[in-house]
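Let us work through a complete example step by step.
Step 1: write down the sequence.
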Amino acid sequence: MIDPAALIGTWKFTRDGVPAFIHFSGTQAFDYLQDGNSRQLLRLWYSLEQPAQIRFRNHPHENGWTCTIKTDGNILTITGDELETTCTRAHTHEIPAWFIEQIVNA
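Step 2: predict the structure and record it as tokens.
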């Protein structure tokens, strides 16, 4: 099973050809939806399951959906039914201020 501490922090990846970010805390993941200059924070609850799965939920008590997950140092791979996302650890200077602000205010 993946060490939960290995997920915590902000990861960067590419979505639709542009940089994107996902942040993991101990029990929640923060992503966002973007339409032009408008951004909406997306809060997901998650739990790690055996052997290498993560269960995301829109609300804490929903069944949600699972993805396979793999970490290899500073690389995180999340694979769903139709998409594989490869993330790398984001450096502090790479994380947009608006993303940090929205997480703090969530």
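Step 3: interpret the result. The mean pLDDT is 93.
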